[in-house]
Amino acid sequence: MGLLSRLFTPKSMQSVPMHGWMRAFGVSFQDFAPRANQDNIHSFFAVFACVSKIAHDISKLPLLTKVKQKDIWVEKAVAEYLIRPNPYQTVQQFFECWLSSKLLNGNAYIYKQRDIKGSVNALYVLNADLVQPMIDETGAVWYQVGGDKLANIPYTALFAAEDIIHDRWNCFYHPLVGLPPIMACNIAAGNGLAIQESSRHFFSNRALPSGILTAPGHIDREKAQALAQAWNDAYSNGKIGKTAVLGDGMSYQQLTVNAVDSQLIEQLRLSAEIVCSAFHMPAFLIGFGSLPAGMKVSDLNELYYSGCLQSLIEAIEALLSNELGEARAEFDLHSLIRMDAQSQMQVIADGVKASVLTINEARSKQGLPAVAGGDTPYMQQQNYSLAALAKRDAQNNPFDPKEAA
Predict the structure, then answer these.
(1) Looking at the predicted structure, is the pLDDT value of residue 385 above 50?
(2) H or E stretch including 134?
(3) 3-state secondary structure at position 261
(4) Is the pLDDT of residue 2 over 50?
(5) Residue 56: enclosing H or E segment and its boundaries?
(6) Which of 238, 303, 335, 382 lies 20 to 30 Å from 260 when distance is taken between CA atoms?
(7) Closest CA relative to residue 97, chosen from 81, 109, 79
(8) Which residues pair with 213 in a beta bridge?
(9) 46, 286 in Cβ contact below 8 A?
(10) In sequence order, what DSSP letters do the residues of 342-386 get, joined into one string?
(11) Mode of pairing for the β-strands spanning 63-69 and 131-136
């Protein structure tokens, strides 16, 4: 929609906030889905590792644009705003920010800045907390965006759906509200943080557990407090190596459960594996779990791509292709799914033998220059009918081309 449509927007709007199925402000504003906003959960190492690795692995892929010519998709020049999305981000930083927003919030909002002709000239990843999807009485989708100086939006404004790329997933409660994987692993991540915090306190006391002093007989309150104070002053806060002398049958009993009894390592591993499960991330990629037996590097990469990255990659490709007309955006996966040298050469050799690749196409994949006669597919001619062979062998000199003619 144009400038006039943005100025004279419909008055009756229904918002789509993210705080549960409760009405807010009482009139035409309705919430549709819960949203996790516990920022400390993001600091759990498994959550951080999953988000960081997924965002880095996808953002490092080169982005190509292709157009169909004679039933074949061929590369074309990439639009300028896909080479440098905005003045302060490279294309790798842009996609990393895009994916981080989607993974942590369930939604990624990208503002398409247009020039005076209406063509897109810049892309900005918006703060998901400042964006509010809204629906007017005709069913059209709008986006209320809070002021964001980095995106050249000085004050709160309303944008049509065509000006916002809304990448979302896990839309369980409303088609315009995505949910982050953290909602499924919130308890596990919190448990992992509690385990790490407990370990920090334990080792800050030189790995010495808490305990209790017991006496066989009755002691009054003043004497008990004096004994506890004297013990704490002498043997806590790093004061170790001293000799304790206990009398009157008094003894010291350990009170804190140690790491072995509490199965701390197993619980921490379980928390990390639950987080990986929510993000569809193979646990061995972030240092937990064991490598699947009998799988090559290429097989592990394919497992990672098909199980974790493919849906995220294809969602970005589809959303960017909407602005490219007859062309389409496509990530180059060769830098992600890299085979070992032997497997790579075998695939290329099989392609040449099957006449799928020309010799020069195979050489270009290895960074080698073209050779004369290498632009045509070759195929061996090795199957002849028995009748043709008998006719050939009946000649005096079957291999004389003149006699064969």
Answers:
(1) yes
(2) strand 131-136
(3) coil
(4) no
(5) helix 45-59
(6) 238
(7) 109
(8) 252
(9) yes
(10) HHHHHHHHHHHHTTSS-HHHHHHHTT----TT-SS---------H
(11) unpaired
238 phi and psi, to 5 degrees?
A: 85, 0
Rounded distance, CA 58 to CA 65, Å? 16
Q: How many CB atoms lie within 10 A of CB 304?
A: 21
Amino acid symbol at 165: I
What strands lie across the sheet with 63-69, from one edge to the other? 72-76, 63-69, 328-331
| 244: pLDDT strictly greater than 60 | no
**Cβ atoms 134, 146 nearer than 8 A:** no
Q: Do the beta carbons of residue 47 and residue 278 sit within 8 Å?
A: no
Residue 374, pLDDT score: 80
User: How far from 158 is each of 79, 163, 176, CA to CA, in Å?
Assistant: 26, 10, 16
Q: Which residue has the higher pLDDT, 34 or 57?
A: 57
Mean pLDDT of the chain: 78
CA distance 290 to 21: 41
pLDDT at 4: 44
Instruction: Please list the alpha-helical segments (H only) found in 158-245.
Output: 186-204, 221-235
Instruction: Please report, as a single letter, which amino acid is at residue 130.
Output: L
Q: pLDDT tier at 260 (50, 70, 90 boundaries)?
A: low
Rounded to whole angstroms, what are the CA distances from 127 to 110, 168, 294, 317? 9, 14, 44, 21
Whether the Cβ atoms of residue 55 and residue 103 lie closer than 8 Å to each other: yes
DSSP string, 152-166: TB-S-EEEEGGGEEE
H/E element holding 120?
A: strand 120-125
Residues 6 or more apart whose Cβ sits within 8 Å of residue 312: 54, 58, 99, 102, 169
How far is Cα 97 from Cα 103, in angstroms, rounded to an integer?
Answer: 10
